[in-house]
Amino acid sequence: MKSLNHFILTIFLVVFSHETIKSQTYVPFPNSGIIWNIITTNDTFDPHSPYKNRYGLIGDTLINDTLYSKLYVLENDTNLNIINGSYVGAIRENNKHVYYKDISFPTKDILLYDFSLQQGDTMYYDYYGFLGNIEPYINSHFNVVANIDSILINNKYRKRFNFENSDIWIEGIGSIFGQGLIHPIAQYPLNGDVVTVACIKHNDTILHLGNPLCDKCFCSLNIRGIENNKVRLYVFPNPVTSVFNIRFDYIEREVYNLSIIDCVGKKVFSKINIKKGNISINKENLNSGLYFIILKDDKGRVYSEKIIIE
Length: 310
Fold this sequence. Notes:
Blueprint (H helix, E strand, L loop, with lengths): L1 H23 L9 E9 L3 E18 L2 E9 L10 E10 L2 E6 L7 E5 L7 E4 L15 E13 L2 E8 L4 E3 L3 E2 L18 E9 L2 E5 L23 E4 L6 E6 L7 E7 L4 E8 L3 E5 L6 E9 L4 E8 L1
Antiparallel strand pairs: 1-2, 1-12, 2-3, 3-4, 4-5, 5-6, 7-8, 8-9, 9-10, 10-11, 12-13, 14-15, 15-18, 16-17, 16-19, 19-20
């Protein structure tokens, strides 16, 4: 019996060790074939006219004998077509550090990400400006790592860095907040704009999905249609610790469907044929992390909100 128990324990330790090593394997930042789809909406000034920014890594270039991947802003493109893009800068990775060189500030390598950070570490920035065509200005700021966990994306574990200011980084992806790739150094909107990383796609694989306009990586920007009756969506409390409530301005004679998706586009909860404006959900089956509430009405209009499960 002792021999059998020892054998089982040995097998357990081998498997456990293998899973631990697997979860700690570093996922490098991509050097080509990746696209960030960023959607901006403003429900105060112009709720009917969302707009997009798409960034993509296409090809490489040598700058002072150092190899960089070329970063483009893409126009109406979902396939990384250089013809439909404008070169704005370059990206490189070295020893888990990801650097950005802006064409309007070519003498400086700007540290975008440091994936060697530990819990409690501080990430310092000395750059805060615009991308590609406007001279940036210096404004030092910093961010502190609140905790680090892991997330399984396409059968591969990646470290996830959760910051005190709610920013979230994922190995091999970057930030999944705001302006995505350049979020750590991007200017924060002061006019009520809501900027969302709608999708991050590497080659044919979706790495992150949180489109506020539809449940696809790319969709028409007029999908909301003409909204004479704007539905406001509220989620509280947020962050979520147990039960949370979803409330919206229910319009009579309309039917709504609700979904909750995780940050890689997997649907984890759904409720159809909703005919009231208040829903309570227990988080017991949801792991900690970022999720998106997607509400659709029977006219095809889509409303969304982010939640954080603690």
